[in-house]
Amino acid sequence: MNPEADKGQIKRRQFLTRLAKAAGIILAGGGVTVVFHDRKGPMREAPDLTDIRLPDFSVAHQGPKMAVSRGAERKATLGLALKAIGGIEAFIKPGDRVLLKVNAAFASPPLLSATTHPDLVSELSRLCLGAGAQSVWVTDNPINDPQSCFTLTGIAEAARTAGATVVVPQAQHFKSYSLPNGRLIKNWPLLYAPLKKIDKIIGAAPVKDHHRSGASLTMKNWYGLLGGRRNIFHQDIHNIIKELAMMVQPTLVVLDGTSAMMKNGPTGGALSDLKPTETMIVGTDQVAVDAFGATLIGRTPGELTYISKAAAEGVGTADWRSLNPVMTEAG
Amino acid sequence: MTPIRVSPNISSVAIVKIIPKKLLQSAHVHPTVEQVTRSQTGLSLTFLALLAIVAAGVLYTQSDFNPAVVQWQQLAAGGSQEPVSKQTAPERTLVPLPDQLVGLTPVESFDAQNLSDKINGKAELYLSSGFKRLESQRFSRRGQSQPWLEMFAYDMDKFENAYSVFSVQRRENAASADLVEYAYQTDNALFLVHGPYYLEIIASEPTAEMRQAGELLARSFISQTRVARETISENRLFPEENLVADSVARIPANAFGLERLDKVFTAVYLIEGREMTAFLSRRESAAEASELAEAYRQFLIQFGGEARKAELSIENAALINILDSYEIVFAVGPYLAGVREAAQPQQAETLALKLYQRLKTVSDESGS
After folding, report:
1. 3-state class of B75 per DSSP?
2. CA B263, CA B288: separation in Å to the nearest integer?
3. I need a surface site. Which of A35, A296, B234, B318 has the fewest CB within 10 A?
4. CB-CB neighbors (< 8 A) of B6 in chain A
5. CB-based contact A185:A179 (threshold 8 Å)
6. Which residue of B has its CA nearest to A8?
7. How far is Cα A144 from Cα B112, in angstroms, rounded to an integer?
8. What percent of chain B lies above the pLDDT cut of 90?
9. Entry pTM
């Protein structure tokens, strides 16, 4: 017996026992975190095991194309730009079911250019139906009061008069989706019901300043296909836009820079936030279209991180000049 | 700390093997006697190795943390198109209405959790400026649904927060509105600060009738909402010469990309056809101002800026060449201040000197 131990001092055995207990507690704590760690993230209800895959909506033999048309009239500039890449008939075939993904994020009037302009919606719908499309659906998921958004933006009326149908998102339209190799879009509600019933998809977006991402263009426009509390993705805005671009391989994208929101985006609010940049951009390469569109609001493609990120993933090229876009003037 | 006494049958050599020297010293361990067995040493090392593995695992997982993938169940419970804002009875209106106006929609209210449902990506601007609550409602003239106008009443908690979101969004060449100290009007909209409230009234058409209706709504809001009378005194600290009218803005946080730089006022100057920005921020003490000025200087250097030698008439001022423009940063009294985006160093120095003299006078007068 060690006399010092009797004076309240520690023995070797006690020391090791205490060390073992402390280590055990720490390991048990670590083990508990491993047991409770949810690698997939929470699900809506039970895990949705449906293996949803979005098809490639692009027209294979078309390849990357882009055209730019200048002018103040959307109908004229859209027609010229489409003609430069082969006409709408090169992309929409008789019998196609077409989805027009617009930006109807806000219940704001068309003159503020915060949403896809109704003139563009009606003309695109008319052209698709003219090319023989079986149907044209128009949709977006504005989250807050979609009915007001479609109505007050003028999109509902424009679609209706052109013979298209507005799909107002309902709860049952969403399915849990994971982007292959995606980091953010995992088990996330996707506006899937219209997507599974179409042959072609066209994205139609306005050119806008965006407080968080720098610019809201065609790739950011796919944000409206997500449901849930997607605002959490604003914490990682460039990567979510990149993943959205990876998620959708569109038939065409149309970027409306007739009146660009230069600042205070994405909502704007004052007419003085706008500038008549009078440009319509049409293309099959959404990265190239956005790279060009950024210049309309005084930004370089390099300033918008998501453009280089999407290009690095092989979605398209940030070097829009390499596509030799046809430039035309309307009137 | 109670000294740890180790049993004499653990050798000092073994203790040193498993416990760092500093720890031994701090714990007042006084090893004595015999050698430990190899198995004891091995056991100890095993425990430590396991702990190291756990620590490494925690660090690895944490390094992969991304707030965007931290999904609460309710956040992922999407697809629901139930209104996410809280709506009240249609009878309620945001403000008492004049006879010619009626509420078109119920009052909607949004908090920090769902603000982005209403204004999407612009929510971050408000959230970083102290946002508490938004109430909005659409109105039209009695008997008409078109045109309409919408009022957004942002409760920003404090007057200076409301001024921040007002000033950073201020539209150039807009006409001042004779309603409150900080108010202006564009062709289709009216913007103002009233106490802690930032008010936007936006019309669907830019008509005189809608502008008049917007003014009526604003006056109604102002008259029914009692607030303390406050003003922004920093506006008067910027030199008037070459100052672009109504360009003073308050950045609440993360100014110029430096996280620590908050509560910064900026003003735009037009000198020889080129715009540049002066800035100032009153800190708690002169020492804090000096320390933050140095931190900002180092921040600029870190991101590619080059310090330039200059005979500046401002004590401890630094001249930095960055991105083909010149910046000056200095501290005077409790103020951190400087000039950004000047095309020529002389232009930066001229403006910085005027700002310095102004701030020095104020500091001396106040005895700061």
Report:
1. helix
2. 14
3. A35
4. 9-10, 12, 15
5. yes
6. B5
7. 15
8. 62
9. 0.77
A10 interaction partners in chain B (CB closer than 8 Å) = 4-7
In a mutational test of the B interface, the residue from A10, A153, A185, A267 whose CB has the highest number of chain B CBs within 10 Å is: A267
Give residue-wise pLDDT tens across range B232-283.
988 889 999 999 988 999 999 889 989 899 999 999 999 988 999 999 999 9
Residue type, B37: T
The two three-digit tokens of residue B362, written as one number:
């104020």
In DSSP notation, A213-238 reads TEEE-HHHHGGGGB-SSGGGGGGGHH
Domains and CATH numbers, chain A: 60-329 (3.40.50.11440)
Backbone angles phi, psi at A10, to 5 degrees: -90, 145
Rounded Cα distance, A146 and A148, in Å: 5
Which tokens belong to A319?
């070097």
Q: Which two tokens stand for residue A160?
A: 């209706």
The answer, for A103 touching chain B at a CB cutoff of 8 Å, is no
Check if the beta carbon of residue A263 is closer than 8 Å to that of residue A273: yes
Q: What is residue B180's DSSP assignment?
A: B
| Measured distance CA(B78)–CA(B272) in Å, rounded | 54
ipTM of the complex: 0.78
- Cβ distance of B81 and A169 shorter than 8 Å: yes
Q: What's residue A5's pLDDT?
A: 47
Residues with Cβ within 8 Å of B52's Cβ and at least 6 positions away in sequence, in order, are none
Beta bridge partners of A208: A216, A261
B78:A189 CB<8 A: yes
Residues with pLDDT less than 50, chain A: 1-5, 44-47, 49
Interval A47-69: pLDDT, tens: 454 578 899 999 989 999 999 99
Put simply, whether A25 touches B (Cβ < 8 Å) is: no
Give the closest residue to B136 by CA, choosing from A108, A155, A87.
Answer: A108
Q: Is B168:B207 a contact under the CB 8 Å cutoff?
A: no
pLDDT at B368: 59
CATH 3.40.1000 applies to domain B234-366: yes
Amino acid present at A283: G
How far is residue B110's CA from residue B130's CA, in Å, rounded to a whole number? 14
Strand partners, B137: B151
Q: Can you give the C-alpha Rg of chain A in angstroms?
A: 26
Q: What angle do CA B203, B209, B214 make, to 5 degrees?
A: 50
Q: Do A109 and B47 touch (CB under 8 A)?
A: no
Mind telling me how many Å the CA of A285 is from chain B's nearest CA? 25
Delimiting residues of CATH 3.40.1000 domain(s) in chain B: 234-366
Smallest Cβ–Cβ distance between B54 and the set A9, A27, A174 belongs to A27
Longest dimension (CA), chain A: 106
Contact at CB, A10 and B4, closer than 8 angstroms: yes
Q: How far, in whole angstroms, is CA B120 from its chain's centroid? A: 18
Burial of residue B175, with CB atoms counted within 10 A of its CB: 0-12 exposed, 13-18 middle, 19 or more buried: exposed
Q: Which of B85, B116, B202 sits opposite A234 (nearest CB)?
A: B116
3-state DSSP assignment of residue A135:
strand
Taking phi over 0 as left and psi of -120 to 50 as alpha, with beta for the rest, A285 belongs to: beta
